[in-house]
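Components:
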Amino acid sequence: MDICKTVATIYNNCYMSTNNKELFELSLRRRGFSITSQRHMVFKELIGQEPLSMRELYERLRGQVDRASLYRIISVFEKSGVVVRIPVGWKYKLELSEAFNYHHHHITCIKCNRVIPIEEDETVERLIKEVSEKHAILPFAHQLEIQGFCRACRPADS
Amino acid sequence: MDICKTVATIYNNCYMSTNNKELFELSLRRRGFSITSQRHMVFKELIGQEPLSMRELYERLRGQVDRASLYRIISVFEKSGVVVRIPVGWKYKLELSEAFNYHHHHITCIKCNRVIPIEEDETVERLIKEVSEKHAILPFAHQLEIQGFCRACRPADS
DNA sequence: CTGCTTGCAAATCTTTTGCATTGAA
DNA sequence: TTCAATGCAAAAGATTTGCAAGCAG
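Structure:
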């Protein structure tokens, strides 16, 4: 085990020792799902991470959680409001929902593929509200994704 | 052939007879791609349709375009700016880009799954501009998706 | 205990690739 | 004529399912 892994473990334990863990367990119980060690492992793997694809998540849990179980667990997590899927290019990635990981949006750099989080913004909220009223809908969730050049990759002439 | 199919064909022909067809061909040529009958078929199948998944598009072109070719054609269309992928739930769907199908966003009803288009709005444009300036990025494209209850499915008590 | 979860294996679905043939320019 | 595009077959990758065994409540 290398130093990075160790630091990550300590980091995760810090999070897990707060009431994030209780909230996680409550979220599952509320929906009638049970708490298992695999579900804990998956949850911990998502804490403090940038959005991960199924494959990345699976790699990180190799030998600890079966692939089929992982899919089933993610499905349970979605139903419980623990994780959300965010569209990235043609695929999607997974991250903890706003309850664990304050709600935000993303900018993806089309050159270096870096994902820059945008904090939930009063502007975005207002927009959703306006649009919803105009169409007489009751908003439940929303995603905003922007693609462009990040500061570093920005062409010189702009 | 049923009446719906016939109407759809006439409808598509109307579109194709306008300069949409020229724009389509120009878009491909501009990028050095050639015009083929399969590409025409795929393009026509997308005209005036709500967003389609790969599978739906393939079904509609059964026997006319090979599956592998369809994927290659869609890839070419994306590079040429003819189609865009929009995230819908865990998957994505395809629709003609704003040049053929004015740029807009979508609201998906979480009950009946209807997709309601939102016209490109001055509010949305302003939001993208503000956020981009704040993060010093150069925006290239963006997607906004909202999920909620549509007018019809809206619970009575809200 | 009992029923929900998991792991394993296999099925299914989606997307990509290699290659010989066809067709656009 | 020449090179890009297509169809076919097969590979690769992603997701789902059936079922027996294991574990949480």
